[in-house]
Design goal:
Blueprint (H helix, E strand, L loop, with lengths): L3 E5 L3 H19 L7 E5 L2 H9 L3 H18 L3 E5 L7 H6 L13 E4 L4
Length: 116
């Protein structure tokens, strides 16, 4: 089983719901004693919300890239960003160079949430 990385804390309530949904899905597919192998980085949403209010999209992308990098260093095989806010900077985040891929972007990054 691959290790899922989740950028959480945008808000903690939705992070808890995504955690529950992932584990329910694994339990349904693999049986009652199974659960998701995952690492969650929970950030203080206040900082991200402030950057969004001020329309500082580059700074928001940088904040999220830092969270993703931490998850990769911790052993995540791919990363889910459980957030509507993150969708606004999705392309920038996915294209950003990083060490693990030899300077390429984040091909193993999924955005999970409703886009309005």
């Amino acid at each position: 089983m691959k290790t899922i990385g989740i950028v959480g804390g945008m808000s903690w309530e939705s992070s808890a719901e995504y955690y529950r949904q992932l584990n329910e899905s694994i339990k349904t597919k693999l049986g009652p004693t199974h659960s998701a192998e995952l690492i969650m980085y929970s950030m203080d949403f206040h900082r991200a919300a402030q950057l969004e209010r001020e329309e500082r999209w580059t700074d928001l992308a940088t904040l999220l890239i830092g969270a993703i990098t931490r998850l990769e260093k911790a052993g995540a095989d791919f990363v889910i960003m459980a957030s509507n806010t993150a969708h606004k900077v999705a392309e920038v985040v996915q294209r950003s160079p990083r060490q693990k891929s030899g300077g390429r972007g984040f091909p193993q990054l999924a955005f999970w949430g409703r886009v309005s």
